[in-house]
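Same chain as my last thread, 258 residues:
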Amino acid sequence: MGDVVFEGRLLSVSALRKVVEAIEPLVCDANFVFGAGGIFLRAMDSAHVALVELSVPRSLFAHLSASRDTRVGVHVPSLLRALKSAGKDDELELRLQSGDSCELALRMSSSERSAEFSLSLLEIDSEDVDVPSSPSEAVELALSSGEFSRAVRDCSMFSDVVRIDATPAAVALTAKGESGSLRVAFTPGAGCELDCPAPCSAPFALRYLSTFSKGAAVAPVVRLKMVADWPLVVEFENVAEEAGECVRFYLAPKVAEE
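reply #2:
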């Protein structure tokens, strides 16, 4: 038996389930970090087009103890299946043990039932991924997660690429295809905040944005950061909590095919 290097208890399993559900379509096997600050992940998708960040900070845990930061490989679909088996109001206990039989133990419980899972961990050889920091002149847009998801879904009916154009007056998503076109504009006002130091425009793959929109379950507001020739940042953070769970995506602009 090895030493217990991480123990944590979340009052609701949904805090972890929502962020894992948001990244699962992009990331299959990935290294998670379990430590005194909480649970974190940073990984590229298999095509190396999108970068994913996930965090469940210490502030969300009713109890957390960690002897050190420990990086372990996890099969994300297996983790999600375990989390989905719990009721929405179940508590979640996590335990990570070092040694030859290193496993991640999960216990979901309510007043009526409990279930215990043990997930085998993986040896994943991956390099640290640098996060591209947005330049100071980046356009920043905050709007309803639902409205963002709706715009992405509607644009997907006409094309697999959307052009995002930002000006101080509005941010517009435009999709054009053989069957027609659609332009959705978001203007500053109730429910929408826009800071646009300089106009910019770039095309992005809608299949990735459609996947990102699953983050709407994490937070009611999405924040986008954009600057020409730079990855688009799409962030969902539960600001209802002092420091809530967060999932953040980075997407490179789509390169025009020759």
